[in-house]
Amino acid sequence: MKPVLFITLLTCCCFRITPAQTGIQQARWLLGSWQQQAGKRIQTEEWKQLNDSTFAGRSYWLKGTDTVLLEQTTIVWRNRRLYYIPVVQGQNNEQPVQFTQAGITAGKLIFENKTHDFPQQISYQLINPDSAVAEISGTLKGIYQTRSFPMRRLP
């Protein structure tokens, strides 16, 4: 066997990428801390990788020296799909709501739950390595609405 062919075969066998790594890695650019101006306050969103199939996020703002938690979210890779599962303080009896992958491209994540009251769609779009836009959209009281949240990456 020629050395090049042997090395190629060895590499393919030993460094195989699993579906879980491939799926969750599509959202890897989201990891880290992001900040946005939300009215008069500054809101922070942090994402960490828990394992090869789960990212954990939390969104909060500071009130003096106190941290006010707004939302805890997981992005999970299972059954060959990504799921975005937020628990929002003061909404949905503080129970998780599942949004299913509706579209994933390089730098864009789109999740949908057409039965949720509002939003029915949540997306994240990477603008450049240091900026992104989160967006929620859907129908609320019969009117289609979109809310955008520009964010910048913290060092």
The general outline is globular
Helical residue percent?
A: 10-25%
Largest sheet: 10 strands, antiparallel, barrel
CATH class: Mainly Beta
CATH-derived architecture: Beta Barrel
Compute the CA-based radius of gyration: 19 Å
Structural class: mainly beta
End-to-end separation: 49 Å
Q: CATH superfamily membership, which one?
A: Calycin beta-barrel core domain
What is the strand tally?
10
Count of DSSP H/I helices: 2
- Taken as a percent bin, the fraction of beta residues is over 45%
Poorly predicted segments:
3-21
Q: What is the CATH topology classification name?
A: Lipocalin
Q: Specify the oligomeric state.
A: single chain
Return the domain count.
1
Q: What pattern of helices and strands is seen along the backbone?
A: HHEEEEEEEEEE
Mean pLDDT: 88
Defining key terms:
single chain; 155 residues; mainly beta; Lipocalin; ten-stranded antiparallel β-barrel; 2 helices; 10 strands; 12% helix; disordered N terminus
Q: How would you describe what is shown here?
A:
There is one protein chain. By secondary structure, the chain is mostly beta strands. The protein has a single domain, classed as Lipocalin (Beta Barrel), CATH 2.40.128. It contains two helices and ten strands. The chain has helices spanning 3-14, 19-25; strands spanning 32-38, 41-51, 54-63, 66-78, 81-88, 99-105, 108-112, 121-128, 131-140, 143-153. The chain has a ten-stranded antiparallel barrel. The longest helix has 12 residues, at 3-14. It is globular, with a radius of gyration of 19 Å. Residues 3-21 have low confidence and may be disordered.
